[in-house]
Amino acid sequence: MHRSYADRAPAPYDRSVSVLIGILACDHVAPELSHAARGRDYDDMYAEMLRSAEPTLRTRTYDVVGGEIPASPDECEAWIITGARYDAYHDEPWIVELRKFVARVLEHEARMVGVCFGHQVVAHALGGRADNTGTWKAGPQTLHVDDTPWFEGASVTINAMHQDVASKLPPGARVIARGETADIPMYLVGDTILCIQDHPEYDAGYIAGLVEMRRPRMGDAIADAALAAIEREQVDNAVVARWITDFLLDRRR
Predict the structure, then answer these.
(1) If exposure means fewest CB atoms within 10 Å of the residue's CB, which of 10, 76, 124, 197 is most exposed?
(2) In terms of Cα–Cα distance, which of 28, 2, 140, 46 is closest to 86?
(3) d(CA 126, CA 192)
(4) Coil, strand or helix: which one is 99?
(5) What digits encode the pLDDT tens for the residues 32-68?
């Protein structure tokens, strides 16, 4: 299991052939979840998700949790912020620097997607707010998503694992989905930043392992209900992966 992203050299890249997506890696898979993750770290999950929708994409991982922040939004053509166990509203130095980078991405009109922690850090960075609800959401959640220029709206189910949420939108943002996972489950900032509270990169095996690991914190009732839903319900990761990829590439309908 990778303990640092520092050894992840970017793949050879030719701008004339493919688009380079910067993965802003904000956490690592816990060692005890290595089997559930099938040996992958979080950047691997995001790279697989993106390439499942667009095989030509290239990715470069930035070890944000280790203090590596891109020098410029121009280093990649688009960006995705991963989930994390951390709080987007706290002032650890790397989180502060990430929030500054998000603001620069908006200023440069670069394209970005934020997932879970990324969803929350974008809100906090751009004048909104993120907070702890005190309540766990875990396992499959259904979202009713609006039409956008990049994808046709639909009801989709994806896995959740959070207590923190984006509780106030930043200026210029609009909610584009509804669901019980959060009051703001998806939002757009202008037409360059898309944020999603839940986890389209989590498969059933990984989310089940994560629920079991966090059972002592969640309690048996929430953990058991989540595991039953994971076994019972199919998720729409492929659909949401396509939405994310089309958004990052600004591929409009």
Answers:
(1) 10
(2) 28
(3) 13
(4) helix
(5) 999 999 999 999 999 999 999 999 999 999 999 999 9
Sheet holding 186-189, edge to edge: 58-62, 20-24, 78-81, 111-115, 193-196, 186-189, 173-175
Q: Give the C-alpha separation, 209 to 89, whole Å.
A: 27
Q: Where are the beta strands (DSSP E) in 118-197?
A: 129-145, 154-168, 173-175, 177-178, 186-189, 193-196
Residue 86 has pLDDT above 50, yes or no: yes
CA distance 178 to 164: 17
81 neighbors 26 (Cβ within 8 angstroms): yes
Write out the E strands in the chain.
Answer: 20-24, 58-62, 78-81, 111-115, 129-145, 154-168, 173-175, 177-178, 186-189, 193-196
Find out whether 26 and 118 touch, Cβ atoms under 8 Å.
Answer: yes
pTM tops 0.85: yes
Q: Is the dihedral of CA 43, 45, 48, 51 positive or negative?
A: negative
pLDDT band at 106 (very low <50, low <70, confident <90, very high): very high
Could you read off the pLDDT of 143-186 as tens digits, one per residue? 999 999 999 999 999 999 999 999 999 999 999 999 999 999 99
Instruction: Determine contact, residues 138/218, Cβ cutoff 8 Å.
Output: yes
Angstrom CA distances, 100 to 65, 77, 124, 173, 203, stand at: 14, 18, 10, 18, 31
